[in-house]
Amino acid sequence: MHLSVVVPCYNEGQVILRLADELENVLSRVEGECEVILVDDGSSDDTIEHMRRLHETRPMFRYLALSRNFGKEAAMLAGLSQATGDCVAVMDADLQHPPELLLPMLDLIEAGYEQVVARRDRHADPWLRTRASRAYYRLVNGLIDVRLQDGAGDFRILSRSALRALLSLGEANRFSKGLFAWIGFKTTYVDYQNVARAAGESKWGLRGLFDYGIDSILSFNNKPLRLAIHVGLAVSMSAVIYGLWVGVDALVRGNPVPGYVTLICAVVGLGGLQMIMLGVIGEYLGRIYIETKARPHFLIRESSGGEGLSVTTAVGRNRLLLESQETAPRSTSWLGQP
Ligand code: UDP
Ligand code: MG
Q1: Do 16 and 46 form a contact (C-beta atoms < 8 A)?
Q2: Residue 334 has what pLDDT?
Q3: How far is CA 24 from the centre of its chain?
Q4: Which residues are within 8 A (CB) of 151 and not within 5 positions of it... i.e. 6 or more apart?
Q5: Burial code of 89-121, b = ≥16 C-beta within 10 A, e = fewer?
Q6: CA distance 171 to 178
């Protein structure tokens, strides 16, 4: 198998056939065999029926259905863990990631790159959105150890070795932009024009984006904890200095000690600060809690290889499982493949 294309789909019944046509058209121009792995992330519309029909009529399309909505990261991981290609592409179902771009990206893989990343430009974006994302990337890049590129999302092609590296990262809290950057490998970028989604609607609300932002900062290191210590120290020092100044003022100049307002401000301000810092600690603790449960990242309810299969796959975390996958990836019997 030359190229596998992994597409996570959540309620994409309106676009999936258009995507399939475009992908088929593009992949027919690729030398070597290709497969498309459609992952149904617990959709509530007719996405899965479309997938079943696609597989029957055009076997190049394989599918997996997760047992419920696990989120895009898990759906992507499910598809990636099943991909059999020498290189693997990941793209969205809504045609915001133009399938034709796969061809120039594939050329770069053949030229020896291990990760080819499609980077969207922000020309068509509203001014405020562009500013907000610039500020976000500046903040995040200041806080985490890996470097994230503005506009570089999940649309990319990985070589087999880059994929193996990615699958060896077993964390439950998967911030994939960061994970892709963390594995490194020889990386290059291809720019494309951003377009509106072909049909249906985005699953990202403002709240979702905000939570995603927090995740991205917290899932890579403990700098926010360090920052909390610094802020705490700075506030305590300023309290000491202010206290000294009030004392000296009272002793030397005989000024009465100004009380009430200062006291309330200090109490409320410090209370808030402590809550924020407890929140930061709590976030890390919550992550540890989730990780120690070591649950599988996704459950597969059905696949084009056989129905009614219930597969629990803990990628990476369970070394034995990973190794057995690595040694026999093409005969994974639990997918019912030959
Ligand atoms: N997606 C998914 N599970 C989810 C949410 C989204 O598999 O819980 C898929 C969705 O079907 C699409 C891709 O992730 O293929 C990107 O989603 P969307 O277009 O809503 O995000 P946006 O492009 O607005 O960032
Ligand atoms: Mg989209």
Answers
A1: no
A2: 35
A3: 26
A4: 119, 120, 121, 122, 194
A5: bbbbbbbbbbbebbeebbebbeeebbbbbbbbe
A6: 12
Kindly report the CA angle at 154 between 208 and 198, in degrees rounded to 5? Answer: 75
The Cα–Cα gap between 224 and 233 comes to: 14
Contact in structure between 64 and 41 (CB atoms under 8 Å): no
pLDDT digits (tens, 9 = 90+) for 44-69: 999 999 999 999 999 899 999 998 99
Sequence letter at residue 305: G
Q: Decide whether any atom of ligand 1 lies within 6 Å of the 69 Cβ.
A: yes
Q: Is the CB of 12 under 6 A from ligand 1?
A: yes
Calculate ∠ Cα 265-266-267, nearest 5°.
95
Residue 257 in this model has a pLDDT that exceeds 70 = no
The CA 96 to ligand 2 mean position distance, Å, reads 6
* pTM exceeding the 0.70 threshold for the entire prediction: yes
The DSSP line for 86-103 is: SEEEE--SSSSS-GGGHH
pLDDT value at residue 104: 93
Supply the residue whose CA is at minimum distance from atom 22 of ligand 1.
202
Q: Which two tokens stand for residue 31?
A: 């030398």
